[in-house]
Hints:
- With 194 residues, this protein is mainly α.
- It has helices spanning 2-15, 21-40, 70-88, 90-110, 136-164, 170-192, and strands at residues 45-48, 60-63.
- The chain is built from six helices and two strands; from the N terminus they run H-H-E-E-H-H-H-H.
- Helix 1 packs antiparallel against helix 6 (170-192), helix 3 runs antiparallel to helix 4 (90-110) and helix 5 (136-164) packs antiparallel against helix 6 (170-192).
- It starts with a helix and ends with a helix.
Amino acid sequence: MIAGHFGLAAAVKSRVPRAPTWALMLAVIWMDVIFAPLLIAGVETIQPVGSGDGKGYGALIIHADWTHSFVGALVLAVTFGLGFAIPWGRKLGTVMGAMVFSHWLLDLPMHHHDMPWLPANAGHLPRMGFGLWSFPAPAALLELVLVVGGTWLYWRKAVAVTVASGSQPKRAHVAAIAMALSGIVTLGLNVAGQ
């Protein structure tokens, strides 16, 4: 689902041009950035399901009980947003926090029932996730819509800004094509892993 997250970041960049692109891209994957060392440390785990081959997201249960819990995602979003609010102001901090939490929202339809409400699945409440990863074609289509939609919004805004400044929109076209290609390649790699 990484490509879809980046597609959303591109869409937000078109609406909040002051937001640094690198920060938006980091924000949408911040939960996974924190997940990686916790996975290595054994705090969070990945478990194969079905045939047990562990191939593709559809064959995995991701126990990201700290980073991908509802409350954990909120905590990560607030702390990330505050970190950006200090140097760049409250509005940009709010945007960055919302981008971090968008990761949880976009993961909800994709994940199996493996996203807890509370960190470490405290209280053993029912887990969330609609399991779209089990259906590669619709999962890929959703990501493609996010990549193409985000790229289109980004491209449209970039062309408008370059034309308004009196420049030729060639650089905007190149940037949009590069963004679209990177998103589509990432999506293709995800689908190939299914």
